[in-house]
From TrEMBL, chain B:
SUPFAM superfamilies: SirA-like. Pfam families: TusA. PANTHER family: SULFUR CARRIER PROTEIN YEDF-RELATED (PTHR33279:SF6). The lineage of its organism: Bacteria, Pseudomonadati, Pseudomonadota, Gammaproteobacteria, Chromatiales. InterPro entries: TusA-like, TusA-like_sf. This is tRNA 2-thiouridine synthesizing protein A. Belongs to the sulfur carrier protein TusA family. Residues 8-32 form the UPF0033 domain.
Amino acid sequence: MEEKKLAIIATKGSLDWAYPPFILASTASALGYETQIFFTFYGLQLLKKKLALEVTPLGNPGMPMPMGMDKWFPVLGLTLPGMQGMMTSMMKKKMKDKGVASVEELRDLCQEAEVKLIACQMTVDLFDMNTAEFIDGIEYAGAAAFFEFAGESDICLYI
Amino acid sequence: MADFDQELDASGLNCPLPILRAKKTLNAMDSGQVLHVVATDPGSVKDFDAFAKQTGNELMESKEDGGKFHFLIKKG
């Protein structure tokens, strides 16, 4: 059986959106896929050694809130200082309680399974990001390098 | 439940951890050996079926017993 290939572009830098790329990549690896994730724009936050990912209920009417708050709590209230941090803590606790892996753990599993993690060089330059803050074992490349792999892939996802 | 060579308790773990842990355990086993996985994630029933089909390992048995899911996987 020839090895299948999965190419993912990760563009989002929030706690909730950190999950799909790492879950899919680690699982694909376990199924025998050769996998690459190309991190661009806010997705680069997922490559920081110290992850400071948060989740925000703002502009997200689909997010379930504790005590049915999404039904009666005014949207404006969600802009209060500390609200985002509170929501993030609650989400992290919920994930832990439900046996959902942390983003760090899934990322480690991806690296262990030799998922290739590629940081968009243009984004690094654009936001003056310090590459010393990123985890080891990643590569830096551009769009053409992504297509070299994605063009041969069986599945290509934009997340 | 038939005999097995190794056991993996994935109770309390959610998707995709049971599959990833099983894969890791299978990597260290010999072809023909059997792994017994215990999980509590209801999604793991379909996932282990799909995992076996895609990886060439054989899902010999899949059953629920007292709120836990048991899988016997023979390494291909």
